[in-house]
């Protein structure tokens, strides 16, 4: 079942390791088949070096296991909330990458300070509110998804394919598991650049015109970056 998506989801998870975004069994990547409305996700607590496509767990959008003998990632409910709310995405990634997590732990958005940021994120990478004690002690993972969706009430998730969960760490998404992993790698790079930039110049800013120029050269109907397909 969904063998190609299992392969793609495994590869996205391994890309997180190759890119240095996860330690040990931290982090997870998933993908969704929109036709069947089934999700493929990394199993919980399994070493990346031991994972194979057949270890991926298939669930429905209610979190019921459809195929697989292992428990799905403990972050499954957050992934499911994003898939249900963001119909244009095909993959979700969660990491504890160092610099993006530092911004999340500080409770701060990552400001758009330059063109590298603008190539991928059309505006700040937002940070959620802190979860309440009741949310933390209740269905914590579901509440994490709820907090993300609240933060994106007025933000286009396709224009800003990532978020920082306050006190926790980042999530990213994309058109596929591979694209979501790509955005996770870029988010970490952007977070590191922003951290250094703020240290060097706490008043650093960049014009909206320059941000728009770089974002729209890669996105939208008038994009000019890359080759014609």
TrEMBL record:
Matching Pfam families, A to Z? Aldolase_II (PF00596)
Please write the reaction equations for the catalytic activity of this protein: L-ribulose 5-phosphate = D-xylulose 5-phosphate
Q: EC number(s)?
A: 5.1.3.4
The Gene Ontology CC terms held by the record are: cytosol
Kind of enzyme, top EC level?
isomerase
Annotated SMART domains: Aldolase_II
Q: Which residues form the Class II aldolase/adducin N-terminal domain?
A: 7-195
Question: Could you mention a single GO BP entry for this protein?
Answer: pentose catabolic process
Q: Which GO terms describe its molecular function?
A: aldehyde-lyase activity; L-ribulose-phosphate 4-epimerase activity; metal ion binding
What keywords tag this UniProt record?
Answer: Carbohydrate metabolism, Isomerase, Metal-binding, Zinc
Q: Which cofactor does it need?
A: Zn(2+)
The family assignment reads: Belongs to the aldolase class II family. AraD/FucA subfamily.
Q: What is this protein called?
A: L-ribulose-5-phosphate 4-epimerase
* Source organism: Tunturiibacter lichenicola
Organismal lineage: Bacteria, Pseudomonadati, Acidobacteriota, Terriglobia, Terriglobales
